[in-house]
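Q: Here's a chain of 272 amino acids. Please give me its 3D structure as tokens.
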Amino acid sequence: MKTMKKLLALLMAMVIVFAMTACSSSSSDDSSEAESEVAYIQDQGVLVVGITDFEPMDYKDENGNWIGFDADMATAFAESLGVTVEFVEINWDNKILELDAGSIDCVWNGMTLTDEVTSSMECSNAYCNNTQVVVLPADVADQYDTVESMADLTFAVEAGSAGESQAEANGFATTPVTSQADALMEVAAGTSDAAVIDALMAGAMVGEGTSYADLTYTISLNEDEGEEYGVGFRKGSDLAEALNEFFAESYADGTMMEIAEKYGVQAAIIAQ
């Protein structure tokens, strides 16, 4: 009888262990599925993209629609996933908080791949080169052709941007603003002496034939080391790998360069 009781107890223990293992396996499978942000986005039917007003990457046309190299690429990527795209204008200094809070699915806005960005986000491969340049009123630009000559100027910079980092690294007095577009407005209005913005934006918005014909851009503050743009997702997101595959395909079939040429940034595109 005792032998029979021991055998029954052993069998019961094996059943419990098997059930726990099965539950653990099922839970693991469910967790794996839950961790797929590609599947989540496809289930929701929309990719929410965090941006700022940053011509030629993201800006509005005359009808109020978001266009630009990044905007068009984001739209095409969303279509490749079988979903629509939604653009949300964010405070650039809060981009990591917005992403982690789930109010956006990615940051796609000419974002420099800094140490802070790559440590806080799951980033795509770099797709574009850039530098930070100084913007000044054209009528005084010849007086400021070196970093040393600019020591007494006040600089408008986008808070949390690579431009702000470069200005501070060079010891400039800075006035943080919400966007690079606002930094240009500060200089145009005379409330700041100069601004530090992305070279791609300066090329599109400053000088003859642009909205800021009385401004010009001069020296690059990081031309030697340069910088690269990437797209940021939440840490561990499989959307980054999906985007890398999309970048490679769109570069190979010419789509990426066609969009780049449309917005005049083809020379900055990195081969995928």
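Q: Can you summarize the key feature?
A: Residues 2-34 form the longest helix (33 residues).
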